[in-house]
Amino acid sequence: MSDEIICRCEEITEDEIIEAISNGATTVNEIKKWTRAGMGLCQGRTCRRLIEGILSKQTGIALKDIKPSTYRQPVRPIEMGVLEEDSLI
Fold it and tell me: What is the pLDDT of residues 61-70, one digit of tens each?
């Protein structure tokens, strides 16, 4: 058993990821949905490769055959002037 934190943003451990895989998760997106790993502020930039490695090791799927997960770009505050400069008005 490993309580090593894999996803720091969501505080998801290696054991939680392995449990999701043993319960039927076979893709990185399924692991995200079951555990929230990769859904934090960094959107998986820190943990994505670790999750893919665990998935590969647990399932025997080659790393090159694991499809990357979907992710959203981080939201950052911007100044209102930026929007004015880009507007067509």
Answer: 999 999 988 7
